[in-house]
Specification:
Elements lengths: L6 H9 L31 E2 L4 E3 L5 E5 L8 H13 L6 E5 L32 H15 L9 H28 L7 E3 L2 E3 L5 E3 H9 L26 H6 L14 E7 L6 E6 L1 H4 L4 E7 L8 E6 L2 H10 L1 E5 L8 H18 L3 E6 L2 H6 L3 E9 L11 E7 L2 E6 L4 H12 L6 E5 L13 H11 L6 E4 L2 H6 L7 E9 L5 E11 L1 H9 L1 H4 L22 E9 L13 H18 L4 H7 L5 H14 L9 E10 L2 E12 L2 E12 L6 H20 L5 E2 L2 E2 L17 E6 L17 H13 L10
Parallel strand pairs: 3-4, 8-18, 16-17, 20-21, 24-27
Antiparallel strand pairs: 1-2, 2-3, 5-6, 6-7, 8-11, 9-12, 10-11, 13-21, 14-19, 15-16, 15-18, 19-20, 22-23, 23-24, 25-26
Length: 762
């Protein structure tokens, strides 16, 4: 690939990589990200101290929340940062949806993979660095102001800015008390949301807020870790009670006066569209009100929706429609042919040193020439659906020149933008309410269903309309985790040590397709290297002298999107299973072999040692059981997993999963354990059952009976052990998923002697 790439592609790729790494405002000075205060009270009587913190009259602290809660516990963890820094109870921090302002944009876009020079003129071919990506984001983030919940970035991105915003608010409150009581600030203290002095004066935050807003801030420092009282504790989740008693509001819980309901039907063939639609049978059914044809919006294909008095009425009407479907103009997708094409692309690129080289070190040809032995294996992974438990839905009302949305989304700003475009109204005329998400996993990074809901609402004369995708529509018309292959080649010297490593992967690039459908007015056609298509391969921690890691970006025509842990989700399977193969070739224990390659990576070695020790690696297991291990870094966190498995009636039975992780500073260890357990179960579901098969353009899987998830009866015991750290936090929502498949596969090999190089595992 030529290094001469135009400025437009350079900019897009610099700002728009995969979900692998969401770099937010961390390149900007923290103070510039706290926003300004406004001494005028808001409508509810609250007073703004900065862009993140407002104080209500009774002293309650309002925190502007720019992240979506989809079960990961982010609302609790972010509130903990503020509560600790302000010395107020966690129960006294109230979350309010952040306004659509650039202040709350955590990314301009997804940070891309194309290497470039910081002078924006000379793109090179060196591996992309985080610093370079942050430089581009800092340059453009203020203009775009896009808020995204994804990439396990919520805590890492907010770590400095929220603590500083809270510390600034605390300093203002102390300053106000000092002025009001004419006492030295140094003699005042804050505890439980009360500012006081030993001589007697005291006041809660609400009594000081108005004066505090007009008080100079001065020099502000966040707390020393030794003074933390909440950070690092397993504080109960703030959303727990509402989710137990049923008062929590998800998208599907939206109920507005006069609300109607809609159900969509897409062509059974991916990319197909409706031609002739007979509506008579549907319209004769009780409760059915209208049929709406939908154009292609934000990556969705043309479809038909039925509107009714309830979801049941609409679904019956949708099933009664008689539709003649037109096949996609480019022909029918077929996973068998796609898989063959991926293998051919990887082998050809490996033979010719083709593909985009995301990472090179030394000279792999020299390593091959001097090798005593060569090892080569081809690994495969299928398409996967997201299948969040809450079906895809959006409620929209279009009236009086404006749009109101109630939607579970990971990208509220993009949801507003697509709604404005479909309705033909200014962006400021769109009001959006973000509900709890019943799972996201990357599916709700897209806004196709938002566009459809707005289009249906336009036809419904001002009534709010709740669009729901039946499960069959969701699984058969997803933006899938791409299928991929990787040709793994290693050179071993006479001592069995790995001297060279060549990895040539092939698969669809996600980010260019995502940009095209979500930001078409900005991007247009995009064709750039995509870091998410190679992450987890080009950034391996192992000290191998000669490496070439390349990826061939294909375009299969199958709609693809970000799936929990993105490229890491299958690349960890490729790399960690191959590392086990190399350990066997070297005649070494898998843990010992890895440690020998981690001499310059002490954090990785510490995580691996902790997992091995806690799992009792090397100690005998009951007859018929075996262990497997995997180590992988993603989203700023390092995770090792050891699995203990057996076979029951010829099927894998996982008994125990021991997880060790270095995620930097831990905000809430209880939530971290929950996230790890969720990620392991998610990863095992994919490893054992996950696959999307496309035959003649149609997805064969339709619902959970044929797109299986791990059941409670099959769930193993999961242990989480954390390496103490003073580093800034890394991500946690996704890093537990990538090691699950290779740890299981390596355990099955130890048990059966049969190496499996394709997912799902039999």
């Amino acid at each position: 690939m030529s290094a001469q790439i135009g400025r437009r592609s350079l900019l897009l790729s610099a700002l728009a990589g995969g979900g692998a790494l969401l770099v937010g405002w961390s390149a900007l000075p923290p103070r510039s990200r706290t926003g300004s205060s406004d001494p005028l009270p808001a409508a509810d009587g609250s007073v703004t101290l900065n862009g993140w913190i407002r104080i209500e009259p009774d002293g309650l602290v309002q925190l502007a929340m720019n992240r979506s809660e989809m079960g990961q516990g982010v609302h609790t963890a972010l509130a903990m940062l503020v509560a600790d820094e302000m010395d107020t109870p966690l129960s006294r921090v109230k979350l309010v949806q952040a306004a659509p302002q650039s202040l709350y944009g955590n990314v301009a876009m997804f940070v891309g993979a194309l290497p470039f020079h910081p002078d924006d003129t000379e793109p090179g071919r060196e591996t992309t660095t985080v610093k370079a990506g942050q430089w581009m984001v800092s340059k453009f983030a203020r203009e775009l102001g896009v808020s995204v919940t994804g990439g396990s970035s919520s805590i890492a991105d907010a770590w400095d800015v929220l603590r500083l915003a809270a510390a600034t608010a605390r300093a203002q409150l102390l300053g106000a008390a000092s002025l009001q009581w004419k006492l030295p600030r140094a003699e005042l203290q804050v505890h439980g949301g009360i500012v006081s002095h030993v001589s007697g004066p005291h006041a809660h935050f609400g009594e000081l807020a108005k004066l505090a807003a007009a008080t100079p801030v001065g020099d502000v420092r966040t707390k020393d870790p030794k003074d933390w009282t909440l950070i690092g504790t397993a504080a109960p989740r703030t959303d727990l009670a509402a989710k137990v008693n049923g008062s929590a509001r998800f998208g599907l819980d939206t109920r507005e006066p006069g609300q109607l309901y809609a159900v969509v039907r897409h062509c059974p063939m991916l990319g197909g569209s409706p031609q002739r639609v007979k509506v008579d049978a549907a319209m004769q059914l009780p409760g059915v009100q209208r049929v709406v044809r939908l154009g292609p919006y934000a990556g969705s294909t043309a479809a038909v929706a039925v509107v009714g008095r309830s979801t049941w009425h609409a679904q019956r009407g949708a099933q009664a429609l008689e539709i003649d479907w037109a096949a996609p103009p480019a022909g029918a997708a077929d996973t068998k042919r796609i898989d063959e094409a991926l293998e051919q692309a990887a082998r050809e690129a490996a033979h010719t040193d083709g593909g985009f080289a995301f990472h090179t070190r030394g000279d792999v040809k020299q390593a091959r020439a001097g090798a005593a032995r060569q090892i080569e294996s081809l690994y495969r992974a299928p398409y996967l659906a997201h299948a969040p438990m809450e079906p895809i839905n959006c409620t929209a009302r279009v009236h009086d020149g404006g749009v109101e949305l109630w939607v579970p989304t990971q990208v509220p700003d993009m949801a507003r933008a697509i709604a404005a475009r479909v309705a033909g109204v200014p962006l400021e005329a769109v009001t959006l309410h973000v509900s709890y998400l019943g799972g996201g996993f990357g599916r709700r990074l897209d806004v196709d269903f938002v566009a459809q809901a707005v289009r249906i609402a336009i036809e419904c004369g001002g009534h709010p309309v709740q669009l729901v995708w039946p499960r069959e529509e969701d699984i058969a018309h997803d933006f899938y985790r791409p299928a991929g292959v990787a040709l793994m080649q290693a050179s071993l010297d006479g001592k069995g040590m790995v001297s060279g490593l060549t990895i040539t992967a092939a698969g669809d690039a996600i980010t260019p397709r995502w940009i095209e459908r979500v930001l078409p007015s900005l991007a247009g056609p995009v064709d750039t290297p995509d870091k998410s298509a190679a992450e987890g391969l080009y950034d391996l921690p192992y000290g191998i002298s000669h490496q070439r890691i390349a990826q061939v970006a294909t375009h299969s025509g199958v709609p693809v999107g970000y799936w929990r842990s993105v490229g890491h989700s299958h690349h960890a399977f490729f790399s960690e299973c191959f590392i086990d193969e190399l350990a066997e070739a070297a005649g070494q224990d898998p843990v010992t072999f890895r440690l020998g390659l981690l001499g310059d990576m002490p954090r990785h070695a510490a995580v691996l040692k902790l997992a091995a020790a806690k799992a009792g690696w090397g100690r005998p297991l009951p007859v018929g059981q075996a262990r497997g291990v995997a180590l992988h870094e993603s989203f700023g966190s390092i995770v090792a997993q050891v699995m203990e498995v057996s076979l029951a009636d010829g099927r894998p039975r996982i008994h125990r999963v021991v997880c060790a992780a270095d995620i930097g500073t831990v905000v809430n260890p209880g939530i971290v354990a929950q996230q790890m357990e969720s990620a392991v179960v998610f990863g095992l579901s994919a490893a054992l059952y996950g696959r999307i098969d496309i035959d003649g353009g149609a997805v064969r899987q339709r619902n959970f009976p044929d797109y299986k998830l791990l059941t409670l009866a099959d769930c193993p015991r999961i242990e989480t052990h954390l390496v103490p750290s003073t580093r800034a936090p890394g991500g946690m929502g996704e890093p537990g998923t990538p090691p699950a498949a290779p740890a299981l596969a390596n355990a099955l090999y130890a048990l059966t002697g049969r190496r499996q190089r394709a997912l799902p595992l039999s």
